[in-house]
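User: Can you help me understand a structure? I only have the sequence.
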Amino acid sequence: MPKILIADDEPHIRLLIEQTLEDIEDEGVELLIAKDGKEALEIIKNYKPDLVFLDVMMPKMNGFEVCQEVKNNLKISGIYIILLTAKGQEVDRLKGAEVGADMYMTKPFNPDDVVEKAREILFK
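Assistant: Let's start by predicting it. Here is the structure, written out as tokens:
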């Protein structure tokens, strides 16, 4: 069963992404939730989700640190990481690419784009 991790410290953003992905959940995708970077990393290590929506600005560990750990230190393969951020500056995009993020989405994002991307990654 494909798994998606939603990692964001803002409850309304987590809820928005969860609601956005409800249709995919009905197609047999499991949604996992993390409220901070440390929790996200634990879930990634234990459940190996196929796709991670990872907020950049989070307590305990930020999204860049989690991505760095997963992609470069633990070298867990097969996980597609999308960094979510309110900051769309080029320096952040470069930092995201540097730590191995597969994609960058700027908040506020279009829910249709989230679903489309999730489908593309999980059912390609």
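Now, to help you interpret it: The two ends are 14 Å apart (CA to CA). The helical segments are 11-20, 22-26, 37-47, 63-73, 90-98, 111-122. Let me know which part you'd like to focus on.
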